[in-house]
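Example 3.
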Amino acid sequence: MKQFWAGSSISKNKAMVEQLQRYGIIQSKKVAEAMESVDRALFAPDGSLAYEDSPMPIGFNATISAPHMHATCLQLLENNLQPGMHALDVGSGTGYLTACFAHLVGPQGRAIGVDHIPELVEMSIKNVEKSAAGPLLKDGSLALHVGDGREGWPEFAPYDAIHVGAAAPEIPKPLIDQLKPGGRLVIPVGNTFQELKVVDKNEDGSVKVCTETSVRYVPLTSREAQLRGY
Ligand code: SAH
């Protein structure tokens, strides 16, 4: 009997994107297209659960965020992820969101991921290589580095978009400094009680901070504290 496909990864990933659109979390074609192109199963530790809307442990006391959080952050940053722009993903973990950023800013742009766990960075590179963003890693417009993301990544600053995938006790100053005028930073702030903050830098260098929603992320901390279990 002929069978052209059976619950292929690609069709399940598309179904996940359609659900996010139905719930109004994905509102734009561009975000839908980026999440359709970058197959989440290549980044999730357990492929069979890859499309469920929940965070999943990835080792080293870290998690891959739930699809609705990835979609929310992509929506918030969409205007700052146009072709040719510079994006920084702090706490890049699996590399999923960095790959989506790279897809949006394209070969003329820069998408930089930074995580302080070398094993996770190594794993994220392998994930990206398998994904639709693989060629962007090869040509250097996407890069994943080991470092303390609280310091940002000055090499490609200033950034149009900065995303932080871990909750900071307060907004790290280097990240604000590395934001371009007109740039936007999306960062969870707090300890047990956390809020997703949107920081917009005005043309005169001043910043405006808004609260988007309450969230639950792992902390943005030192490598030692994270490996100790905080
Ligand atoms: N966006 C990622 C989230 C991973 S969880 C994903 O969905 O895959 C948060 C990540 O932040 C972890 O990988 C953790 O190692 C990293 N992290 C925490 N504190 C950090 C710091 N000071 N510098 C860099 N990375 C940090």
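The CA atoms of residues 18 and 215 lie 23 Å apart. The pocket of S-adenosyl-L-homocysteine is lined by residues 60, 62-65, 90-94, 96-97, 114-117, 120, 148-150, 165-166, 218, 220-221, 226 (CB under 6 Å).
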